[in-house]
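Hey team,

Filing this mostly as a record. A colleague (T.K.) asked me to run one chain through the structure pipeline before their review meeting, and I want the input and output archived in the tracker in case anyone asks later how it was produced. No errors, nothing strange. Just documentation.

Input sequence:
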Amino acid sequence: MEKLTKEELIAIILEQNKLIAELRARIEELEAKLGMNSGNSSKPPSSDGLKKPAVKSLRKKSGKKPGGQLGHKGSGLKTEREPDRIVVVKPDICGACGFNLGAEPTYQADTRYVYDVEIEVKLIKYVIEEAVCPACDTVTRAVPPECKGTVNYGSMIRTLCVVMTNYAHVSIDKTRKILRDLLEVPISGGTIKNIQREFAEKTGDSIKEIKENLLKSPTLNVDETGMRVEGKTRWVHVASNSRYTLITVHKNRGREGTESGEVVQNYEGTLIYS
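Output structure:
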């Protein structure tokens, strides 16, 4: 085997050192990527998966024991109404020896409250009668305005539908099932849609007021995001300030969809796009 010269050995060693340095840098790069998450990089929280980092509190330890401190006057959840029913609970048997305490005097030791809800669904039957006018033979039937069809829904049921679908963001189908399963109220998804539509028609003045206040704002936040509506892609457009928010849905994004809210094209202040 031919011996290498000193210069050749030095060249080989330098090449090995270069390769080692490159491999070390690559390892550090891979380790850094493995340790990246939404907290230390631009990665979204949804990419953390099962490796989501634990939330770290910014609060510093005070050195005190947890719970109420000595001398602290406690204040629990206070009731702001008078009780509908008062139940006096007396001990009947001694908890230590089992002695019958039924004939022993008792004294009040504590007061506790239980909040509960009693849901009562009322079904009102209207017997519609009519009469024949003796003067002109006209038949007049007495029909209350809330009885437009054979089966109708009162104001509280209608309000509950609007609150669940619009405020609580419960789907129409789930709202229908909740009313059916919990309250035994038979109602269709189409009826809930009609209730939503009637409610929306009554919000015209409120929407007009929101638009007027947004136009007066010195700055206006504008944004858009995609969503699925009845199986199709639609765009939710938002225009808001610190007090008012206008949300509209349009089939297009960009300028056409943004201007469908009838605010941006008439606005003269500073627009902030998120």
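Quick notes for T.K.: The chain has six helices and six strands. Residues 138-201 form one domain.
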